[in-house]
Protein: Helix-turn-helix domain-containing protein
Organism: Paenibacillus dendrobii
Amino acid sequence: MPTQQEQHSIQAWSLINRKYLGKGIRVKRFRKPSRCQIRNRVLLAVLMANDIKLSQLAEELGVSSRSVSAWVYEGRIPGKKNLDKVCQFLGYPHHILFNRTVTANSPIICQPSSSRFMRRTLTRSPVDNKILTGLCMVHDLSVSDVSEWMHIHPGTFRKWLHQGTLPSPSFQDRAELFFRIPKFILFADCILHDS
């Protein structure tokens, strides 16, 4: 049987725990995975650019969060019914969102040094190229750093993001080489918008 002092101590700890446990835990919008964990960078890029959590997508499609996580982090391709649902919900064809070549290879991009994506890129003006913007978010790359590494003017790169401008074939090749994703996927927003 606990003594009076031990009983008082247990009650004090109980009150302290209730105070802190009742506050809840602040969870970031997206977890920070290591780069090698993301198999479907394009799907995650579209979700991040549209500020859609994996759990939100799962709820919207009527599937489990585990299934959506497997699509993004393990590169699994959903069944025909769910594939149609996710493509219709996000507005992209399946060969863009679930490209087998991209998910199978999914390399780490060669960024020369650390960089940091700035949220004002999204808030400054609307973004027309969601995939390219989302990829900068996935890899936490700033617009100015990517422009420098790709040897293009920052204003040119911003036009690609904000105005959905389709660059010349040589610039498309540079972007494809840097992000290691085919240019028809990188600039799908521009191509789909024009057609």
Summary: The chain has a mean pLDDT of 81. The CA atoms of residues 8 and 14 lie 10 Å apart.
